[in-house]
Amino acid sequence: MSESAEQKAVAPAGAEYSPAALEAFVSSVHHLPLFSGTAIQLIRSVGQEEITAGELSRLISTDAALSAHLLRIVNSPYYGLARRIGTVSDALTVLGFNLVRRTVTAAVLQRPLFAYLHDTEVARAFWRHELLCAALARHLALRRGFDGEFGYMAGLLHDVGRLVMLMQFPEQSDMLLKRRSDDDDASIHIERELFGFDHAQVGGALLELWGLPGGMVQAAHQHADETEPEDQGAANVWRANLISHELAEDIEPSSGVDENEVRPWMDAIDLGVKAKKQILDEIAALESDRG
In the chain, helix, strand, coil percent, each to 5? Predict the structure, then answer.
């Protein structure tokens, strides 16, 4: 693929944080086909109490690919339905309003990830981290009296800057996909040295440009901070991001952890064994289709 003059202007800079480099990069990917208009409306609908199930159904039905993905998920073995579900409105009846919205928004992010990185172990690990962070952010939000669905969306979108950078700088994918929590600080520093900006800054700037709620913008921008953000919504995502690494280690076959064992980090966020299993089962269903 040939490089345009605009792409060259935002190539790795070899310097510390540069606001100009960030602005140039964000401008160059502003219209990247990452989110469809339908998806943007779907995400913005979080917290809008006036939207109805009928309106949500019509919105999803305008995007054939998203509709097809939703129907594949709802008809997966995870739900064990006695009959096939053939319409978005039926899916809403079976899964419920919020789960349908989460499922379709996840599909939006899943498309470019597997299109660019293909179905590799690296891509699967990245995707599972996103889903874990979203589910844990929802859990933390509900425990602290906040909107759980808003927390889920903020968690799902927290790494959108990393996804965009992966798409634009595929040759740097190994560095960009460091997932261990103890590598995060080093990863941020390396990103700034290479590009003049980091993935958290890119994510916050892009979500702001796309007109998404300020809480989601703040969560994306601050999720990799060294200290917990003061804003409680951003703090939920920040903590979920850290904990998701521990959860990922716990569910590795080689971890030796009994799936019914309550781990210290689970106690810290009041996450029981049954709730953890529900999270993992939902993630397994979302992972079941990568088309």
Answer: 70, 0, 30
Q: How far is CA 170 from the centre of its chain?
A: 19
**Prediction pTM value:** 0.83
Number of helices (H) and strands (E) in the chain: give both, helices first: 17, 0
Q: 11 — alpha (psi -120 to 50), left (phi > 0) or beta? A: beta
Q: What is the pLDDT of residues 127-182, one digit of tens each?
A: 888 999 999 999 999 999 999 989 999 999 999 998 888 888 878 877 777 644 44
Is CATH 1.10.3210.10 what the domain over 105-287 is classified as, yes or no?
Answer: yes
How many Å separate Cα 134 from the centre of its chain? 6
Q: What is the DSSP string of 208-256?
A: HHTT--HHHHHHHHHTT-SS--SSHHHHHHHHHHHHHHHHHHHTSGGG-
SS3 157: coil
Beta strand extents in 37-181 (DSSP E only):
none
